[in-house]
Amino acid sequence: MTGMPVTGAWRRVPAIWLVLLIVTAVIIWRNPSFAEPVSLLTFLKRSAPLIVLTAGQLFVIVTGEFDLSAGALITTCVVVAAKVSAGDPALTWPVIGLLALLGAGVGLVNGLVTTLLRVPSFITTLGMMLVLNGAVFLWTGGSPTGSLAPEFRQYGRETGYAVAVTAVVVAVAWLLLHRSRFGHLALATGGGTRAAALSGVPVARMRIIAFVISGLSAVVAAILLAGFAGLSKEAGAGYEFQAISAVVLGGAVLGGGRGTAGGAVAGALTLQCLFTLLNLLGLEKPLRDTVQGVLIILAAAFAAYRLRKEQ
């Protein structure tokens, strides 16, 4: 009888999927109704913004950079959509187009400042986060006004739409990273900037495109989040750190050169499952933030250890 031994097959399964399986099993043990189809689909709907944002953050990280402005961009998109459309259904698609331009523009600025001016992306995107948060506060006076039309909110409110949009984003991310020349060049960019440049890889262009992808993913995440969370001045608060956590948990290496779309999705789902479990246990948000910080440190340490071991 031929084939891969069972133990060998298990070793090829990324660890994050096993962690996801264990955490899900614990949730079902604590709350059996979680295993029902309706509950699982609702969970996927609420996980959709993080999954989409994580897919965009993945491209930035594999090219060796960070994007800390994604959460602020989500908030900005939600506030702009409500303010501009004022609940008018006829403005749904024009507003979505405006948000796409905003997301691409923010990503482009992040990329240009990081590559042409050679400002570390950590500083660049931290500055952009402060700019966006300040602009939203000045524009709204700290109290966002306007409303979101049902036609705008349906993509995040209705489970079918949210799951479908997320599936499309994940599929595009997987094809782009693992089945295209762009993905090969992106991984090469993060694997070694100097070596990639000497090999003819357009390093600056790859990083700029990665930031634009991250900006557009924040726009999609904002639309999905607005669907079930509505208008809030803190709509995207903390999402940038959750996305980075998910990417690292999924096996990507901080510094670039390694990462998979499947691992990033598993990381996002695992993080969302952990938050669900902490809520079931009655633990408060500060502890959830502590757990997230510990996970980032442990995941980064494990990734660094694995990389050293393979060298």
Description:
The chain is mainly alpha-helical and 311 residues long. The protein has a domain at 36-237. The protein is 77% helix and 0% strand. It is built from 14 helices and no strands. The protein has helices at 6-12, 15-30, 37-62, 70-85, 92-115, 121-140, 150-157, 159-178, 181-191, 193-198, 203-229, 239-249, 261-280, 285-310. Helix 9 (181-191) crosses helix 11 (203-229). The longest helix has 27 residues, at 203-229. The model is unreliable at 1-10 (pLDDT under 50).
What descriptive keywords fit this protein?
globular; mainly alpha; disordered N terminus; 311 residues; single chain
Number of helices: 14
% residues in beta strands: under 5%
Distance between the termini: 35 Å
Low-confidence stretches: 1-10
List how many beta strands DSSP finds. Answer: 0
Helix content: over 70%
Give the averaged pLDDT, no decimals.
89
Q: How many whole angstroms does the radius of gyration measure? A: 20 Å
From N to C, what is the helix and strand string?
A: HHHHHHHHHHHHHH
Q: Which structural class matches the secondary elements?
A: mainly alpha
Overall shape: it is globular
Largest sheet: none
Describe how the helices and strands are arranged.
Layout: H1 6-12, H2 15-30, H3 37-62, H4 70-85, H5 92-115, H6 121-140, H7 150-157, H8 159-178, H9 181-191, H10 193-198, H11 203-229, H12 239-249, H13 261-280, H14 285-310
Helix pairs in contact: 2-13, 3-8, 3-11, 3-12, 3-13, 4-5, 4-6, 4-11, 5-6, 5-11, 7-8, 7-11, 8-9, 9-11, 12-13, 12-14
